Amino acid sequence: MKRTAIASIVLLAGLGLSGCSAMTSTETMSLPAEVQPQDGGVAADGSIQSYADTTQADREQIITGYLTVTVDQPSDAAKDAIRIVEGANGRVDGRQEYAPANGDKGSSTLTLRIPAESLDATIEKLGLLGTVIEISTTADDVTSQVKDVDARVKSLQASVDRLTALLSTATDVDSLVSIEGELTQRQGDLESMLAQQRSLGDQVSLATITLSLISEEDAPPPPAPATFLTGLEAGWNAFVGFISGAVVVIGVLIPWLVFFGIVAAVVVVIVRWRKRREPRGEAPTIAP
To answer: In this structure, are residues 64 and 78 in contact, taking their beta carbons and an 8 Å threshold?
Structure first.
């Protein structure tokens, strides 16, 4: 009897624990497992998706850079640059222009969005506007980020579709309220991910290049010579520049020298002529 009573008590306790566990599990899961969104980069079966096998051609990159060009007229060159970029199916996101001042010809700064596939050809055309003095581009690999966002968008979209289907079949008020609340949250997450997806797509498809158009007067000075050869070259260029400047000065002064020479010659001739015309005075007599 005692053994039978003890066995009955143990059996009842086990059933009670299993019932409590099932109840807790039921209360915690407000929605079926199939509507739970999968984490980005994780497959539906739970395996981790790897992007290591992505080929170079499939890489997603955000390209940024800057280009500085000296031109004769920055304002006119800016208009030509806009036509070049728009001809390549790009656009201008920003434009700053400075009017001529203190003897310079002003400057223009353009923020250009250029299609990545035609970036090199477009930069080459922009360089033909004048003389390129500085150029730099940087590519930031965002392949994993793009694929992660795409995976999250697909997962959230599937989750929203499942919740929408469940909502149409809900029969009791509690299930209806629970599903509607979860559906609203998933739709908000999906809209946020879609906005991030669009932003990444825009940055990947269109490179961002800052174009600075300056006049020759605004060009930065050449770097100081650092070696014997560069010093010799700088000295020779300075000597040639001095000789050229001296020749220019002499060329400017020659007409003035000729003019003043003629005037001086005329003055000398007149003075001599007047001296010849003046009568010579008689020698003074001395009284005895």
So the answer is: no
Count of beta carbons in the 10 Å neighbourhood of residue 70: 22
Tell me the domains of the chain and their CATH numbers.
60-141+208-218 (3.30.70.260)
The Cβ of residue 232 has, within 10 Å, a number of other Cβ atoms equal to: 11
- Tell me the β-bridge partners of 72: none
**CA angle 50-54-55, nearest 5°?**
165
Distances (CA, A) of 200 to 75, 145, 147, 219, 252: 32, 9, 11, 36, 63
Closest CA to 113 of 140, 136, 132, 94: 94
Q: What digits encode the pLDDT tens for the residues 12-21? A: 344 343 444 4
Q: Say which residues have a Cβ less than 8 Å from residue 182's Cβ, sequence separation at least 6.
A: 30, 31, 35, 163
Q: What predicted TM-score, i.e. pTM, was given to this entire model?
A: 0.53
Closest CA to 223 of 134, 136, 138: 134
pLDDT tens figures, 258-287: 888 898 888 888 888 877 776 655 555 555
